[in-house]
Structures are given as C-alpha cells and as structure tokens.
Amino acid sequence: xxxxxxxxxxxxxxxxxxxxxxxxxxxxxxxxxxxxxxxxxxxxxxxxxxxxxxxxxxxxxxxxxxxxxxxxxxxxxxxxxxxxxxxxxxxxxxxxxxxxxxxxxxxxxxxxxxxxxxxxxxxxxxxxxxxxxxxxxxxxxxxxxxxxxxxxxxxxxxxxxxxxxxxxxxxxxxxxxxxxxxxxxxxxxxxxxxxxxxxxxxxxxxxxxxxxxxxxxxxxxxxxxxxxxxxxxxxxxxxxxxxx
Length: 244
Fold this sequence. Notes:
- This protein is of the alpha/beta class.
- It has helices at about 30-45, 55-65, 80-90, 105-115, 125-145, 175-185, 195-200, 210-225, and strands spanning about 25-30, 50, 70-75, 95-100, 120, 150, 155, 160-165, 170, 190, 230-235, 240.
- The protein has eight helices and twelve strands.
- The strands form three sheets. It has a five-stranded parallel sheet with strand order 2-1-3-4-5, with helices on both faces. A four-stranded antiparallel sheet has the order 6-7-8-9, covered by helices on one side.
- The longest helix has 18 residues, at about 125-145.
C-alpha cells in the first residue's frame, strides 16, 4: 500500500537523482515541512523546484519567472489560493495548476477548477499519485503547446488562449475555454456529460448537477450566436457534439 501524506517526516524520500531538471515547478504551500518534503521528493524526479509560503510571494515569483507547473495550496496566508488563481489566469492562461486542499466538499473542488485549476488533490494524499498527476499535467501542456484546433470556421489556439470564428474573436473564461477545447478535440464525436465532467472538472458526474449543461449553454451562446450554421449540437439523451 502506498504511504499517505499524513506526516511529511514519515515518508522517506529517495536520494536525489543526478539528472538535469526537466521542468521548473513552483510549490505554494504554507505548511513548511510539507513544502520541503514535496520539494525534496520532486527534485528526485529531475524537476527544478522553488517554494513560496504565502500567496503574495507566489504571485511575485509567477510574475517574474517562468514555470511549467504550479502546485497550489488553497489555504495560503496574505493571498489565498482562489484569489491567486484569479490573478494569474489572465496573464498566464496556459500554466498547469495542481491544487492541494484539505477541503473535501465537491463544491470546494469545483470552485477551484472553475477559478482556473487544472486538477485537484485532497489532503492527505499519496506522493506517488501527486507525481503521476504532475507528469500528466506537464505532458498535456507540452503536447498542446502551440496547437491549433479547427472545426469549420471556428479556430482555437491553445498557445495564445484565443478563439475565433470567421475571424471574429470570441471571449471565453478559462473553464469555457477548457470545455470548448475538449469538444473540439473530440470533434464530430458525441461526448457524454460524464466524459465532460471528468475531463474538464476532474470529478465524477453523479447525475444530480446541471453544471455541464449550464457551461455548454455559455459556450454555445458565444460560439454560435449570430451564425446561421450552428456548430454545437445536443444529442438527445446522450450528450453534446461539435461538428461542421
């Protein structure tokens, strides 16, 4: 059984590997022993890791240095995690963010994801799972860098966080962008509400929330408004599809 992150000192960290850093990470965590544990552990995975113990320091670091991944605790002093996300997303839209939280309610995780987080982990957690999720976020960001998706006259530019239809710019929030990106990655293929919830919000779909439907409407109103041909369609009883 994998050790759980109840106490940083209780989990041994392997010796640091003698390899060059492959990515630069920032850990924003006010629990100093935990932050140093994560730093040592991730350094063994060949990452360059910097620490910030409050939200203001994290914001300054993100404003002055380029990072490949932010590991963010929500309960930061001076500037909490949600507020930090709202500040950085307009200026660093493509930075992968993995949120750590002691809040176990689904609503708290949804709030973090809606604020711009890419993934969430609830404390206590497995270090092995954290490294796996970090690798997945880094890989996804690397694969999508510079990528352009197109369906008909709709173009989504991942690198510039830009969406246009017939040359007209469409303004989307971070979560709306992620939803449209997922639909366009699966163009001409029907995706279910459960698939959307799991991919975009990183949580299981329990059938009692209309969150997916609400956000699809937000995106549809922006993408199809004023155009005779509607790209986004509802597949009755199943889900949604974007097609030309």
